[in-house]
């Protein structure tokens, strides 16, 4: 059984998708130790409670430095014997301490076909670009913003009458299948 921690900052739909696949037996060798979030009011906390998971809320503003913030996270990860970190809408760059401790063992999913549209509002960037195709990318995390080695991508069309909400829903549907598949291949 491989122990993973999931980091999320928002609604947690990818977190829920992963948990659902575990519960359905589609990720039989994965155990999620807990949810880590940097947002005290994030909806992902409610989703974690549904699965009776511990939640670690760790706000950067409560620490003197990012190094202290990460030391606390590493302390929790170590005590839970976490082997992999899975970012699922976590909106903070991972710093050097965690990167060193989990080198090549941190995954992220991003709603674009990287290297296009890194960072925030990738879906809005894709819509504004005039592109006709976008999608989602799973990649290893490095010190940059969505710059790590690409593991797998899946694409979807951008239709002329798309609004951001429509496109976001189609990308989420792709992600909810893609991310668990990649976790299955890479981690177990």
From TrEMBL:
One of its GO terms (cellular component) is cytosol. Residues 3-183 form the Formyl transferase N-terminal domain. (6R)-10-formyltetrahydrofolate binds at residues 66, 91-94, 108. The record marks 146 as: Raises pKa of active site His. N(1)-(5-phospho-beta-D-ribosyl)glycinamide binds at residues 12-14. InterPro entries: Formyl_transf_N (IPR002376), Formyl_transf_N_sf (IPR036477), GART (IPR004607). Keywords: Purine biosynthesis, Transferase. Its EC number is 2.1.2.2. It holds the Pfam family Formyl_trans_N. It catalyses: N(1)-(5-phospho-beta-D-ribosyl)glycinamide + (6R)-10-formyltetrahydrofolate = N(2)-formyl-N(1)-(5-phospho-beta-D-ribosyl)glycinamide + (6S)-5,6,7,8-tetrahydrofolate + H(+). Gene3D superfamilies: Formyl transferase, N-terminal domain. GO terms for biological process: 'de novo' IMP biosynthetic process. The active site is at residue 110. Transmembrane segments: none annotated. GO terms for molecular function: phosphoribosylglycinamide formyltransferase activity. Pathway: Purine metabolism; IMP biosynthesis via de novo pathway; N(2)-formyl-N(1)-(5-phospho-D-ribosyl)glycinamide from N(1)-(5-phospho-D-ribosyl)glycinamide (10-formyl THF route): step 1/1. It comes from the Bacteria. Belongs to the GART family. Catalyzes the transfer of a formyl group from 10-formyltetrahydrofolate to 5-phospho-ribosyl-glycinamide (GAR), producing 5-phospho-ribosyl-N-formylglycinamide (FGAR) and tetrahydrofolate. This is Phosphoribosylglycinamide formyltransferase. It comes from Staphylococcus saprophyticus subsp. saprophyticus (strain ATCC 15305 / DSM 20229 / NCIMB 8711 / NCTC 7292 / S-41).
